[in-house]
Structure formats: structure tokens, C-alpha cells
Known about the structure:
Blueprint: E1 3-4, H1 8-16, H2 19-29, E2 34-37, H3 39-52, H4 57-70, E3 71-73
Parallel strand pairs: 1-2, 2-3
Helix pairs in contact: 1-2, 1-3, 3-4
Amino acid sequence: MLKVVIDTKVFISGIIFGGTPRKIIDAWLTKKYIFCISPELKAEILIKLEKKFPLPQEARNKIKEALDTFSQKIYSNPKSYSV
Length: 83
């Protein structure tokens, strides 16, 4: 199955505004691909949602739960980077 990393802006746009980004989110939730997410990306998504969009706490909790449940966690290995 295809593994995908979604940019924060695309993810938030899909949640808040709909359109094509929403189709990307819907495809993830219906398991058309595997959403891969790092702890840093998850934190960025949740922080931006909280600071920029007045979603109820319950909605933010559901988004966090979906990220925890329906995504594959990935972790970077800083030692593997070369400069």
C-alpha cells in the first residue's frame, strides 16, 4: 500500500476548508493509503490547529485520536543525515 506524508497546510486545509485537500484526508481515513507521521509533524498540526482555528476541544481530540490510530509513526534518525 502507498505510504504518504501530508504537509501540515494540506492537512489543516482538508480539515477546515474541504475541497481537494479534504479528498486527501478522506482517502486516508478510508485506508486508500497509509499516512506516515512523525511526532514533530503531529505536534505541528495540533499546535497550528489550536492557535489558528477555534475548534472545540472535542474536535481537536478526535483529530489527535485519528492521527494516533490511523497513521503509521515514523521517526527520523539524525545520525543518518549528512551535511
